[in-house]
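During the no-cost extension, the postdoctoral fellow (Dr. R.K.) reprocessed legacy sequence entries with the updated structure-token encoder. One reprocessed record is reproduced below for audit purposes.
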Amino acid sequence: MYTSYQIIINGRVQGVFFRATAKKVADELEICGWVKNTDDGCVEIHAKGDELMLTPCLSTGLT
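Re-encoded structure tokens follow.
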């Protein structure tokens, strides 16, 4: 079953290759979506894919 999530990550996530790492993991797991830096220093993620692939990915912080 396919599902989607919108996630806001805060803390030290800009300047540490978080978006690049998220993209790499998403590509490996065939997850679609986007990741962007927000004006307040957070990272916003919109991820869509097979729930069986998304759930473990999200629970481990995308790594």
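Residues 22 and 61 are 9 Å apart (CA to CA). The beta strands are 2-9, 32-37, 43-50. The remaining legacy entries will be reprocessed before the final report is submitted.
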